[in-house]
Amino acid sequence: GENVEQHPSTLSVQEGDSAVIKCTYSDSASNYFPWYKQELGKGPQLIIDIRSNVGEKKDQRIAVTLNKTAKHFSLHITETQPEDSAVYFCAASKGSNYQLIWGAGTKLIIKP
Amino acid sequence: SAVISQKPSRDICQRGTSLTIQCQVDSQVTMMFWYRQQPGQSLTLIATANQGSEATYESGFVIDKFPISRPNLTFSTLTVSNMSPEDSSIYLCSAGGLTNEQFFGPGTRLTVL
User: Fold this and answer.
1) Backbone angles phi, psi at A82, to 5 degrees
2) Which of B46, B29, B48, B60 has its CA nearest to residue B90?
3) What are phi and psi of A11, to 5 degrees?
4) Nearest CA of chain A to the CA of B97: how many Å?
5) For the segment A66-90, what is each residue's pLDDT rounded down to a tens digit?
6) Do B102 and A105 touch (CB under 8 A)?
7) What band does A35 get if pLDDT is binned at 50, 70 and 90?
């Protein structure tokens, strides 16, 4: 079945630096790739998503890139701030049943 | 985006009892899902809540243990039945439309003693 691998499991960066989280998916029919941010004690929050007909999408300090040939997609956060500290999850969906296949998560730590 | 609320936000229950978790969406949605998340882990889909019909369960989850109702397009319940300590977890409700986006509730933190 579909599988999504996410790396790294923990990422520590200096405040102001950039952070990159990578995910690889196995099912070439996947066409929707969201990223969620989960803060402690809260539910996951959709922060950005990308569909298979687009290679890159940006929203202020956050960007997502998609390489369909290599079947991987990445989350880029620039000018990191303390409030970016959280667990980030990638996911993939084929769209036919709207189910999301989840990565294992990345704990992002922003060092002051 | 949809705003989703869950009740209760947390509970401590005795083994052998059952707990029903409610999920309310502020607008009509096509899809509603129930997930389980162990501390420090990713999300595991329990089932898709289908409006007006039986839920669709994922492998490893059965209706007798996790009965689900979805009487309309904005509301669903998940019951955790005959609980054991292994059921201690965070239970999350999500909702989405035909564009694949899913929005999550705040979760219900369940501890079974």
Assistant:
1) -55, -35
2) B46
3) -140, 125
4) 9
5) 999 999 999 999 999 999 999 999 9
6) no
7) very high
